[in-house]
Design goal:
With 64 residues, this protein is an all-alpha fold. The chain is built from three helices and no strands. The radius of gyration is 13 Å and the shape is globular.
Length: 64
């Protein structure tokens, strides 16, 4: 397994978001824009998307 893939998956596992990252990666893989990316690159984008979404939810919840 590629080191980048392992690193991202272990980090996501430690943060409790592995399933969300894999789901997002699968969603991205179906889009033409991301279709031909390497798995590690797509996982990195998916991880970043999940983290940003989580941060945005925290900001919204803190402002209530």
């Amino acid at each position: 397994m590629n080191d980048k893939i392992e690193e991202i998956l272990y980090q996501a596992l430690d943060e409790g978001i592995k399933d969300k990252v894999l789901k997002e990666s699968n969603r991205l893989g179906k889009l033409n824009k991301y279709k031909h990316l390497e798995v590690g690159d797509r996982l990195e984008i998916a991880y970043n998307n999940v983290i940003l979404k989580k941060q945005n939810e925290n900001i919204i919840n803190n402002n209530r």
